[in-house]
Amino acid sequence: MAGMVRSLLALIAFLALGCAPTAFRPAGSWSAAHAAGAPGLVLSGGGLSGMPYDAVLAWIRGRIAAPRGIRAGNLLILKASGERDYSDTFYAHSRLRAVREILIPPCVRNREVDRMASYVRTADAILFAGGDQAHYVVWKQTKLIDAVRAAYARGAVIGGGSAGLAIQGEVVFDSVAADRVLPDDQDVATPDAVRNPYEPAISFTTGFFAWPPLRASITDTHFARRNRFGRLAAFMARALRDGLVRTAVVYGVAVDEGAALLVDGAGNATLVQRRRESDGYVPRGAYVLEGNRSGRVFPGTPLRYVVKVTHIIMPGSRYNLIRHTGAGRRYRVTVDGKHAAIYSPEPY
Description:
Blueprint: H1 2-18, E1 22-23, E2 27-28, E3 40-44, H2 53-62, E4 74-79, H3 87-92, E5 98-103, H4 110-115, H5 117-120, E6 125-128, H6 134-137, H7 143-153, E7 157-161, H8 163-166, E8 171-173, H9 176-181, H10 190-195, E9 204-206, E10 217-220, H11 229-241, E11 250-255, E12 259-263, E13 268-273, E14 286-291, E15 304-312, E16 318-320, E17 325-326, E18 329-336, E19 343-344
Parallel strand pairs: 3-7, 4-5, 4-6, 6-7, 10-11
Antiparallel strand pairs: 1-5, 2-5, 3-12, 8-9, 11-14, 12-13, 13-16, 14-15, 15-18, 16-17, 18-19
């Protein structure tokens, strides 16, 4: 019996040693940070490799306080899964001085997460990769997230793609409950969310980030392609009814696959996107939804909610996320979970 116990303890110790952050070798030469001036945000609707990264990386480099003709600036990519996926490609497609990825698996304890804050302090841009946002929100109140907030305050660019975008809003659909009650690789879908906006798979995190351009906002990803308009409306209605925001209105900032919003410190968002995806899908830009406290938002009852929409579709279009003014097609959509056709009119 004693031998079995020792073997079990040895296995636990081995697994504990194997569950540690990995700071991969950077592409390029990491140096002191150059970020200066107003901060920025990168909001990519798909994963980082699926965003229009030539335009995104050029925009990041353009915000670095260094002569344009030289390589300058450090891009740090934080991730909870995967390998060394982006560094070489992003370095080759940019004039950044260095690109580095850090893997922090879900099994890592917060004291180990805290140790990764030192890398953030020398980064000019920090992007969160795709995956599962439930693996990011557990970093709430760590020194790592404190360092990301401090980086934004000193003028760095922050953001992410897919799950990395989902965590940027004041209210985060966190996928924690979804991971617990849904099968693997299944997410909360529009039909379920509008049928019951309080279904057990929906959960939220607040107090993670607090970027001024995303005040009173929830972000969503893969938006038109995965038909997430209805579920975002449900999230917005819940945020107001449950007091997750302290304003009279709530916003949904949603970006489609292949598109990204580049947001400066004054809240001016510029749309960049690919012409089409590898399978032929044409990205549909970004959507800003606005909702108030009216509507039918009760547990076990189909949602009925009316939102104002601004659809930002033309590359180069600008929209201010603080004043909520700018380019885009404007219309209203009623979302009603009692009907087979839940949208009136079609939102996309």
